[in-house]
Amino acid sequence: MKVKAIKQAGNLRGKRVLVRVDFNVPLTKDGKVGQSEDFRIVRTVPTIKYLINKGAKVILMAHLGRPEGKPDPKYSLSPVAKRLSQLLGKKVLLSPEVVGKKTIELVGSLKNGDVLMLENVRFHPREEMNCKRFAKQLAVLGDIYVNDAFAASHRAQSSVCAIAEFLPAYAGLLMEDEIKYLGSALRKPKKPLVVIIGGAKISTKMKVIKNFTKVAKRILLGGALANTVLTVMGISVGKSPIEPEMFAEVKKFKLTDNQIVVPVDGVMAIKREAKKGRTDAMGDVRQNELVLDIGPDTVKLYENILKSAKMVMWNGPMGLIENPAFAKGTASLVKFLANSKAETIVGGGETVQIIRKMRLENKFNFISTGGGAMLEFLEGKKLPGLKKIIK
Ligand code: ADP
Ligand code: 3PG
Ligand code: MG
User: Fold this and answer.
1) Ligand 1 nearest-atom number relative to CA 349
2) Three-state SS for 156?
3) Which of 161, 214, 336, 390 gives 20 to 30 Å between its CA and that of 73?
4) Could you give the CA distance from residue 368 to residue 183 in angstroms, rounded to a whole number?
5) 370 and 272 both lie in a single domain
6) Which domain holds residue 166?
7) What CATH number corresponds to the domain at position 110?
8) What would the pLDDT profile of 223-275 be if each residue is shown by its tens digit?
9) Ligand 3 center to residue 181 CA distance, Å?
10) Which amino acids bring their CB within 6 angstroms of ligand 2?
11) 1 inside domain
């Protein structure tokens, strides 16, 4: 999959470049961007700096939360503009509206290398409708369109999708990276490829697992989603929540040929808030227990398999990481992979969070900014935001 790279856009001096970014980050209770929550903002800095250095006038479009088509101060991009300004070491202007007189005026006043951010595009009722008329209103603000919002590219929305019909469209540097790394894990992985899938629900990751059965040597399961698979295999997971509606789908997997690997032991407790868990073999889980983490034997088993991998793709934690008593399985694999020679590609909100908390993000080859977008990409779907920027 080749992208139309920003480097092919020609001379950018004085050009108004409209850039769609994904700045959808969680805010703290007092409405600021949390210290370890700015990953998505940090990752767009290279594209923005590239444009500044080329003398472009940079106009950023982003959404925050789901304000449902009307202005709501709770979802203002103001704290995001502040953080971006700190990261760039440069003033970032924020227009008080998405489109309108004020925005046109501000765009008109931009000098080469200036950065302007439009207010939350989802304050406009037509953003989520992928509306051509609104997309045109955005498009007239620029000469070129750059999509650097991989994490929002699964949404067919005006500033991600329709706008690309009205301007020459290019992929930003982050977008290029996302497609390169996630695309290679899926289409031309270094072999053997080992995939780790964990997290909350098998229903949200079923298609991804299925798609990886075509290319991965092994698929290691963990987290709450493994409990549904264990149940199908006839292994009791006590009172752990499972998804019976997924049994039929899970049964379609060849669970006997060792490609899909499930935990052999776990850390159990009677409630999620427990201070300490009980480690035991799968098969010895008690009826009143929840399986909340993978156990040390599973960690060893998984590390052994990972040792022979040339490429590792990981999404989803191995346990209830919000409780330190059940974060050890995930943390062990993070440490192991941080020291691995294999090419390591990771994604997913919670998975990335724990890696950043452990300050090991630089030890991974690639960390995706995508949540839902990454999963859909890895399912093999064509994302609406990528249509015009793929050659
Ligand atoms: P990601 O965002 O990284 O893709 P998910 O959203 O699928 O991951 O799942 C992350 C959530 O799954 C975390 O909040 C974690 O606590 C929860 N989780 C993982 N394993 C378990 C488990 N065994 N029991 C309960 N919750 C779990
Ligand atoms: C995300 O956070 O996954 C993207 O920014 C998309 O947000 P949405 O799920 O509200 O469309
Ligand atoms: Mg998540």
Assistant:
1) 2
2) coil
3) 161
4) 12
5) yes
6) 6-174
7) 3.40.50.1260
8) 999 999 999 999 999 999 999 999 999 999 987 789 999 999 999 999 999 99
9) 20
10) 22, 24, 66, 151-152, 155, 371-372
11) no
Domain check: are 74 and 97 in the same one? Answer: yes
* Residue 383 located in a structural domain: no
CA distance 346 to 6: 25
In a domain, residue 240? The reply is yes
Is pTM beyond 0.90? Reply is yes
Task: Using DSSP, state whether 237 is helix, strand or coil.
Answer: coil
Bridge pairing between strands 193-197 and 218-221: parallel
Question: Relative to the CA of 370, which ligand 2 atom is closest?
Answer: 3
| Residues flanking ligand 1, CB < 6 Å | 198-200, 223-224, 291-292, 315-317, 319-322, 348-351
Most informative mutation of 278, 285, 350 for ligand 1 (most atoms within 8 A of CB):
350
Clarify whether residues 188 and 167 are in a common domain.
no
Domain shared by 37 and 141, yes or no = yes
Ranges of H-type helices in 89-223: 101-108, 132-139, 173-187, 206-212
Residue-level length of the chain: 391
- Considering its fold, how many domains does the chain have in total? 2
Q: Is 372 a catalytic residue?
A: yes
Q: Is 172 a catalytic residue?
A: no
Q: Give pLDDT tens digits for 280-310.
A: 999 999 999 999 999 999 999 999 999 999 9
